[in-house]
Design a protein that fits this description.
With 185 residues, the protein is mostly helical. The chain has helices spanning 3-27, 31-50, 53-65, 69-90, 132-139, 147-161, 170-183. The longest helix is centred in the first third of the chain and has 25 residues, at 3-27. It starts with a helix and ends with a helix. The chain crosses the membrane at residues 7-25, 31-50.
């Protein structure tokens, strides 16, 4: 027997009890009407669950709330991979010079005599500024969202991520603010 069958059976039992209490309230005593109300409410919620509508509503609420921590971690990993690809495409290695040894973290000699002269075209795009695409991903919106939707989503997430709140996430809040700054113009 599946869970759904059990819930449907329970809903049927509660509907029957509600009907008996309604009849008893009309025929015998009005207190039975007061008892019929909670039985009717339980019947409704059991039916709502058995029909699958409760699950659908919970899924829609979760989607509207935004990405989970696991999804945010995936987004960060994708952003990091995109930055690495951009560095490789630009012919740099993420800020380390071509003569630096592996793991040294030091820059090699640049230009003639190590003066630091370098062609600006050799540098990758600035990685410290969030792209518009990343900002939409951070807010969980598609690129067709208008400024009102951006503002609304920012406020919803800011309430949740604010560091002073119960579930505060300082890094997430900073990232959210950066995304909003990119998109509000």
């Amino acid at each position: 027997m599946t869970n759904r069958t059990i819930v449907v059976g329970l809903a049927g039992a509660f509907v029957g009890m509600t009907a008996l209490l309604l009849i008893g309230g009309v025929v015998l005593h009005p207190i039975a009407l007061a008892l019929a109300v909670p039985f009717g409410a339980v019947s409704y919620f059991l039916w709502y669950h058995a029909s699958g509508r409760l699950h659908d509503q919970a899924r829609r609420s979760a989607e509207a709330a935004g990405p989970t921590e696991r999804e945010r971690a995936r987004q960060r990993a994708r952003a990091e991979a995109n930055r690495e690809r951009a560095y490789r495409a630009a012919g740099t290695d993420g800020g380390r010079g071509p003569n630096a040894g592996p793991g040294t973290g030091q820059r090699g000699a640049r230009g003639p005599g190590g003066t630091g002269a370098r062609d600006p075209r050799d540098r990758a795009p600035a990685a410290d500024r969030m792209s518009e695409r990343e900002a939409y991903e951070t807010l969980g919106l598609d690129r067709t969202a208008d400024s009102e939707a951006v503002r609304r989503r920012y406020r919803e997430r800011a309430k949740r991520l604010h560091p002073d709140g119960e579930d505060g996430d300082e890094e997430g809040f900073k990232r959210l603010n950066e995304a909003y700054e990119v998109l509000k113009n």
